[in-house]
Design goal:
alpha+beta; Argininosuccinate synthetase, chain A, domain 2; 2 domains; 11 strands; globular
Length: 323
């Protein structure tokens, strides 16, 4: 899936929560526990993601949320940890940071003021685009069945591939995201993310889909399946049956998404500059205006007449009408 919530957020945190719950439940079962706990406050999205997934996977386990019960905010949580000699990274004292393989999210502190550019000390994975090398970095990504399998001809497992793209993209200043996000708990927040690999793969994968899929498949995939799937995951509904249906529909298309895409990384930007696929439906001969196949005038006129018939008929019927 090209999962970008509201077209901007690659769901790094949202994707991680169901997995965390699944592993927590595994430990609880192994230890014979009757409850599990998380540290989410009553103001965040994660409380919903944790609680809903836990109810689905282990309805018999009690879910405890001490920070929510005690009415704690981020500052109170930091003080609580310090008072008990629990180390808190320096950056976490100024910002609320969540980091995993897919993205690094930064909230709180100066970031909360949407009128100001995020301070440079908020970033860790990416160099400031203006300070990135003045020479572009090219990366060729090979896909099989819609999944990335190799970089510049070198096959990699998914973990190594994402790490490599994070490093390459971050060095080129790629992957900084700054947007106003509609939270599922009823208010908007200013969110800042670093996600070099996610941004690169999103652009490359969508481009390859455009080469391979039919126009109708593309509209369904990009306008319905991708955003619906992203919404479900963001809203804490990983367990929603519709997610599996969306994945099944997408999987039928993705099995044809084989090929390679070349991306140009330069000072914060990702530009797709080349691509190819054995299943690609692009034909240079058909697209070339100087040679190759041309419909006759009669064929063109007939096509245009039929193509516009719905619109022209409606326009004729409504001419002069009042509504």
């Amino acid at each position: 899936m090209n999962a970008m919530y509201e077209g901007k957020y690659p769901l790094g945190t949202a994707l991680a929560r169901p997995l965390i719950v699944a592993k927590t439940v595994e430990v609880a079962r192994r230890e014979g526990a009757d409850a599990i706990a998380h540290g989410s406050t009553s103001k965040g999205n994660d409380q919903v993601r944790f609680d809903v997934t836990a109810k689905a996977l282990a309805p018999d386990l009690e879910v405890l949320a001490p920070a929510r019960v005690w009415g704690m905010g981020r500052e109170q949580e930091v003080e609580y940890a310090k008072a008990r000699n629990i180390p808190v990274p320096e950056a976490h004292k100024k910002y609320s940071i969540d980091e995993n393989l897919w993205s690094r999210s930064i909230e709180g502190g100066p970031v909360d003021d949407q009128r100001l550019e995020p301070p440079e000390d908020a970033f860790k994975w990416t160099v400031q685009p203006e300070k990135a090398p003045d020479q572009p970095t090219y990366v060729e990504i090979e896909f099989e069945g819609g999944l990335p399998r190799a970089i510049n001809g070198e096959r990699m497992d998914m973990l190594s591939l994402v790490r490599a793209l994070n490093q390459m993209g971050g060095a080129a200043g790629v992957g900084r995201i700054d947007h106003i996000e509609s939270r599922l708990v009823g208010f908007k927040s200013r969110e800042v993310y670093e996600a070099p690999a996610a941004v690169i793969l999103f652009e490359a994968h969508r481009d390859l889909e455009k080469l391979v899929l039919t126009p109708r498949e593309l509209r369904l995939k990009h306008q319905v399946l991708d955003p619906y799937w992203a919404d479900l995951v963001y809203q804490g509904l990983w367990v929603e049956p519709l997610r599996l249906a969306l994945e099944a529909a997408a999987g039928e298309m993705e099995k044809w998404v084989d090929g390679w895409v070349k991306a140009k990384l330069y000072r914060g930007s990702v530009q797709i500059v080349a691509r190819d696929s054995r299943y690609g439906t692009y034909s240079a001969e058909l697209a070339d205006y100087s040679r190759g196949w041309y419909p006759t005038d009669e064929e063109a006129r007939g096509f245009i007449e039929m193509w516009a018939l719905h619109s022209l008929t409606a326009l004729s019927k409504r001419a002069g009408g009042k509504k």
